[in-house]
Amino acid sequence: MKNSIQISPPLMVLILAGLFALLVVFGACWFSRVNTMKHLAEQESALRSDLEQLDTWGKWTIDYVKIDRALNYLSKNKLTQGTRTVLAEQIWKISRSYYIDPLLILAVVAQESRGNPNARGRGRSGRETGAMGLMQIKLETAQLMGARFGLIIESTEDLLRPEVNVAVGSAYLIRLLGKYGNLKHALMAYNLGHAAVDKMIANGQPLPSRYYDRVISKYWELARLSF
Question: Collapsing DSSP states into helix, strand and coil, what is residue 132?
Fold first, then answer.
């Protein structure tokens, strides 16, 4: 005869109640752990975002310092402290907005005018070419570039204002970089004019590299100031 264990109804109720209580506790612990992990994941994501933002700000700060040092080196008392500050902020904003190395803009300034805001371009004959200011921009080019972002340029005297000259000169350089997708071609077009460069490319002629080489040399000269 087999022995059978009989559980009284009250005991069965207690057992079921205990199992239910354990299930509730387990569920509560599981949900608590899930919420904790979710909260930790959110904190980690926020921390990563903050670190990325700090890294970006750090790069922006480094860029600004590079620009300020380069301008100070180039100006050699040709620009006032106030003008240098305005130009540093302007070039910094341009570099951020158009993803262009700010030292490339300043390398062109170094090659074109040696940091002299009153520079006037002259040809081999000694006659003025019409190129003016820090980035040696001609009035027609400046007016065309300025019209694209609402900057009115009335005369060559406007081009002797550093902030105006750098604005249109940078815009022209950025446009050429977009047109050619090639730094060497863009710089040669900045120097010779895009029509001349287009003709050379169409005819399969090699582009002269002297201007490009000089700008790159100026770039590395300015970059060394940051080390």
Answer: strand
